[in-house]
Amino acid sequence: MTSQGCGSSSDVVTNSQRHSSEKRFKCTVCSKRFARAGHLVHSRIHSGEKPYQCHVCDKAFRSSGNLSCHVKVHSGEEPFKCPVCDKTFRHTGNLKEHTRIHTGERPFKCHHCDKAFRTSSALSCHIRIHTGEKPYKCKVCDRAFSQSGDLNRHIRLHTGGGPVHKCSVCNYCFHHFSHLQVHKRLVHSNRRPHH
After folding, report:
1. Contact at 8 Å (CB) between 111 and 117?
2. Distance (Å, rounded) from C-alpha 164 to C-alpha 172?
3. CA distance 49 to 87
4. What is the C-alpha separation between 20 and 14, in angstroms, rounded?
5. Which tens digit of pLDDT belongs to each residue from 128-180?
6. pLDDT given for residue 18 in this prediction
7. Are 120 and 129 in contact (CB under 8 A)?
8. Counting beta carbons within 10 angstroms of the beta carbon of residue 103, is it exposed (0 to 12), middle (13 to 18) or buried (19 or more)?
9. Strands 25-26 and 80-81, sheet pairing
């Protein structure tokens, strides 16, 4: 009598065997593997193909799922509700991130220091402090920044966009009022509040 139970050697499947059988569909461009053939929509990342177009704003998407999520922007639909504060969200992922505010969970840990973050994007931004990476480059003067917001503020220097604060003494201009205040204190006065 052969054993058909859990302990039989023919029933034992290693994690590596399971992993390779679960991800048997491979992208022909980058060799990334997927569990289902439908995930080969990924190949559109390489081709740039976006066959699903929004009927409201003409934005295009790689998959019908991404289009379905986007349409909620126009409908205002926010079906995912926080059980703690009743705030609502369009996507379940946004709700999951939000609930970490209430739980204090910070699952994304920096491997350079002891800091932890609620979102992977916040961790990615933080890691640039350690690596010195500056992926956001100005197309006008080739300056580079670690944060997209810093690049956007910098671009205003070239475009003239945003508020301009002019020094009443020398007519030098600043995009941030706080920078004008520092300029006046350091250049046009003898005040040195920080010793």
Report:
1. no
2. 10
3. 35
4. 10
5. 999 999 999 988 888 898 888 888 888 877 776 666 677 888 877 776 788 88
6. 45
7. no
8. exposed
9. unpaired
Q: Which two tokens stand for residue 36?
A: 């289902």
Here the tokens at position 188 are 């046009």
Q: Using alpha carbons only, give the angle 118, 124, 129 rounded to the nearest 5 degrees.
A: 115
- Tokens read off for 41: 């929509």
CA R_g for the chain: 26
Paired with 25 in beta bridges are 34
d(CA 194, CA 46): 53
Phi (first) and psi of residue 34, to 5 degrees: -135, 150
Q: What is the pTM of this model?
A: 0.48
Exposed/middle/buried for residue 12 (C-beta within 10 Å: 0-12, 13-18, 19+): exposed
Q: Using CB atoms within 10 A of its CB, is residue 47 exposed (0-12), middle (13-18) or buried (19+)?
A: exposed
- At 119, list the tokens: 């979102």
Task: Report the distance separating Cα 170 and Cα 164, nearest Å.
Answer: 14
Q: How confident is the model at residue 5 (pLDDT cuts 50, 70, 90)?
A: very low
Confidence class for position 95, pLDDT limits 50, 70, 90: very high
User: Tokens 């204190």 correspond to what residue?
Assistant: 185
Give the whole-angstrom CA distance, residue 42 versus residue 35: 12
